[in-house]
Amino acid sequence: MKKIRKFLLPEAEMPTRWYNIMADMPNKPKPPLHPATKEPIKPEDLAPLFPMGLIEQEVSTQKFIDIPGEVLDLYRTYRPSPVFRAWGLEKALGTSCKIYYKYEGVSYAGSHKANTAIAQAYYNKVEGVKKMSTETGAGQWGSALSFACKQFGIDLEVYMVKVSFNQKPYRKLMMNTYGANAIASPSNLTDAGRKILAANPDSPGSLGIAISEAVERAAKDPEVKYSLGSVLNHVLLHQTIIGEEALLQMEMAGDYPDIVVGCFGGGSNFAGISFPFVRENILKGKKTRAIAIEPASCPKLTRGKFMYDYGDSVGLTPLLAMYTLGHNFVPAKIHAGGLRYHGAGVIVSQLLKDGLIEAQSKYQKDCFNNGVMFARSEGIIPAPEATYAITGAVDEARRCDEAGTPQTILFNLSGHGHLDLGSYEKYFSDDLEDHELSNEEIEKSIAMIS
Amino acid sequence: MKKIRKFLLPEAEMPTRWYNIMADMPNKPKPPLHPATKEPIKPEDLAPLFPMGLIEQEVSTQKFIDIPGEVLDLYRTYRPSPVFRAWGLEKALGTSCKIYYKYEGVSYAGSHKANTAIAQAYYNKVEGVKKMSTETGAGQWGSALSFACKQFGIDLEVYMVKVSFNQKPYRKLMMNTYGANAIASPSNLTDAGRKILAANPDSPGSLGIAISEAVERAAKDPEVKYSLGSVLNHVLLHQTIIGEEALLQMEMAGDYPDIVVGCFGGGSNFAGISFPFVRENILKGKKTRAIAIEPASCPKLTRGKFMYDYGDSVGLTPLLAMYTLGHNFVPAKIHAGGLRYHGAGVIVSQLLKDGLIEAQSKYQKDCFNNGVMFARSEGIIPAPEATYAITGAVDEARRCDEAGTPQTILFNLSGHGHLDLGSYEKYFSDDLEDHELSNEEIEKSIAMIS
Fold first, then answer.
1. Cis omega (within 30 of 0) for bond into B80
2. CB–CB contact B170 A6 (8 Å)
3. Which residues of chain A have pLDDT under 70?
4. CB–CB of B328/B445 below 8 Å?
5. How many domains does chain B have?
6. pLDDT per residue over A285-301, tens digit each?
């Protein structure tokens, strides 16, 4: 029998609804609090930043939300994405487990970020928005939103952390190619940027600063709306198309995962692959373990504290009830820039607290080891972030093999690493560091906000 | 009705045979001549460089050649590749034509080169080869062969033109990630390289020099075989899987192309998309126009001469009966490095001479214009080479619209431009030149070999 490598859904079978796990959670997340009043935030508090369509999704408890036709149409530029059986990786590992991966790197900008970028741009367009702002670190999110905004006639300003802006010119060029305006942050275009530059003209920038600039643009100009690529409930919602497709594709493969794995930064790709499977656990008694993989250098899920904290490092956002290392926590400069975030978002945090999902942390050198093994056996060069998901799957397979109980593992390969090959150079020249994070460091960071 | 964007073949329906157009050509190509004796070359003359399996394919007139199971298995890491209906591009153009494109950028290394890389590595493995050498310019071919060799336990040395080696570190890193040894050429590892370096220690290298080094490695060491990524008959053969799939996918779409377009360097991706359609013309009376698009700065098909010439710039290869600008011709440094080749290969040349295919030339600025329009409307950022195919399709669509006779156009999008974004920077900063090639320049270059 031929070994089928890819399970492809025809476009006609692409799911047409997002899944909202809020409907099925035994304990709902605690409400976000207004940063000034500390009262539960009201939809209208968010209106200067987001269109009402997205604010409604942020607080919705409706179980399924129809994906608008124009969003589905643009999803079809790359969706349904394939599920691969990892024959090459299984052979390289010599495992008795069956390993599958969902590959989101097929999207135009190369990662799952497109799934929410298209949806967010659409809901802004519906409300007549002509200009949007956002921030980006390594550039995955900014490039995904650039193309999406172009499709709906929206001008986009992307505040890109200056050090990345200079080190990753290809991401900036991708945004330009899609017609967006990429701006090195801190910039002279905002009060926040000007203030930083006055104090330090050579500031390399940070994600916190870039967020402040992008939010300020929207807060001060009623013509401009703001967009965020992870953490928020509506972002996680849009990503659930990943897991909804995967459910159908695992059925095509005649299999069902014992374990589902995703890497974890703000939670969006992990939520995307895992929430539909968690639903099957809750409602149908399935026993799939959903495992979030975070960097050992930024371990909010495994070593953080569940408490109210700000979503940004400056303290402008609502307070969120979540696992956090403290919003002042500065993660080591690992190459998986998309995983360098201090908090976890309210839904994922509540699910973890309730034991409905699990979390593990991994070191970056191990992850690059496994990333290179993956590239050499499967062909796809993974984004640094995705090597954490690979490592989660690989380690679980090895554990199963040692125990003599082979299982079926599905992980989300959230993006390719074509524009991250510089980080592979560091790996090959043995120029990667693994930072051992002490309990004292974590306690100190959390104490600052307690 | 929903607009279907992608026509996907399931793996089970992937064609299992390559098509050899030699069987159906009304006039066969003239035989290659030995460079020393000027007599038709014999298979054993090629044996030091290539395994017999490939030499047999080079001279075969068998109509269909079964694709070995191990090759099919690795094709399945990315094949069948999708055919897209270019709804976004059609809208951007406002055309009444229907435009489809076959997308080969889904392969592990990002282009159609994988189709022959896997096949060549396989036939070498069958004959016990443990080490191979090749050259690469911009790096597409070298990276495709790197992964393929890894799958069959073959060590690979890639001689990469030094200026590209330094300017395109990501391509080198991709080869390293796949486990190959990328060497800046000229190198100290060969006589050819040492000779160049002695005369000019700062030589930037050239494709001609890199070929000389890679060929020398194989010619002088019986343990090493050589591999070429275009021009040769067996390479074109392996690429026909593109067109065989496209035939089936156009049928899925309920359509048939009036025009098929591919960009043209050595001929492999153009042959891949077009030969199966040319067969339908020859045998079934179909009337599809097959159009090869070459750079105006390297116009061998539209302004070259049909004659015997060397395949390389040094004069080591057999003499080939083909359209050529002369093997000493040095094309302008356009960004589509894969199209900078003086000749055309014997099959394509004979087909053009016999009026079974057509050729057009395009300028690079127009091509980047169309490449950016394509990226903004379809999402995929095309490789510089592929922008020539886009431009061929766009110009034909405009011609049809002006004539009021809309047609169906299929082009081959041979690769993505993720590792070529530097060339887009030149475009955005208006730093691209179009070189107007005079008749005198061409005549002079051809006269050198007449």
1. yes
2. no
3. 1
4. yes
5. 1
6. 999 999 999 999 999 99
Quote the pLDDT of residue B312. 83
Q: Are B15 and B75 in contact (CB under 8 A)?
A: no
**Inter-helix orientation angle B364-378/A140-151, to 10°:** 90
Token pair of A186, please? 């801190």
Tell me, what's the pLDDT at B425? 94
User: For residue A117, is it within any domain?
Assistant: no
C-alpha span between A73 and A55 (Å, rounded): 23
Q: Does B4 touch chain A (CB under 8 A)?
A: yes
What integer pLDDT is reported at residue A313 of this predicted model?
78
Report residue A55 as tokens: 């604010």
Q: Does residue A272 fall inside a structural domain?
A: yes
A437 closest CA partner among A429, A445, A428: A445
Q: Cβ–Cβ of B147/A8 closer than 8 Å?
A: no
* CB-based contact, B76 to chain A, within 8 Å: yes
Sign of CA dihedral B391, B397, B399, B401: negative
Phi/psi of residue B184, each to 5°? -70, 130
* Residue contact A76–B3, C-beta within 8 A: yes
Specify the DSSP class assigned to residue B325: S
Q: What's the confidence (pLDDT) of residue B87?
A: 98
Residue A172: CA atoms inside 13 Å, Cβ hemisphere, count?
18
pLDDT of the residue at A359 = 98
What is the β-pairing status of strands B83-85 and B358-362? unpaired
Say how many C-beta atoms besides its own lie within 10 A of residue A218's C-beta. 22
Contact A337, A423 (CB under 8 A): no
10 Å CB burial of residue A16 (0-12, 13-18, 19+) is middle
From the number of C-beta atoms within 10 Å of its C-beta (0-12, 13-18, 19+), residue A137 rates as buried
> Which pLDDT value is given to residue B137?
86
The amino acid that residue A165 corresponds to is F
DSSP 8-state secondary structure symbol assigned to residue B416: B
* pLDDT score for B49: 95
* B20 is a domain residue: no
Mean pLDDT of chain B: 95
Confirm whether A55 is domain-assigned.
Answer: no
Helix or strand run (H / E) with residue A324: strand A319-324
Residues 6+ apart with CB under 8 A from B255: B98, B100, B408
Cα angle A423-A156-A58, degrees, rounded to a multiple of 5: 90
Q: How far is A165 from chain B (nearest CA, A)?
A: 14
Query: pLDDT tens, B391-443?
Result: 999 999 999 999 999 999 999 999 999 999 999 999 999 998 888 899 999 99
Cα atoms found within 13 Å of the Cα of residue A391, Cβ hemisphere only: 27
Q: How much helix, strand and coil, in percent to the nearest 5, is found in chain A?
A: 45, 20, 40
Name the residue range of residue B90's domain. Answer: 6-11+69-110+237-447
Q: Which residues of A touch B106 (CB under 8 A)?
A: 106
Residue A88, C-beta contacts closer than 8 angstroms, at least 6 positions apart: A377, A378, A379, B77, B151
Q: What ipTM, to 2 d.p.?
A: 0.96
Tokens of A187: 């910039």
CATH number of B343's domain: 3.40.50.1100
* Rg for chain B, CA atoms, rounded: 20
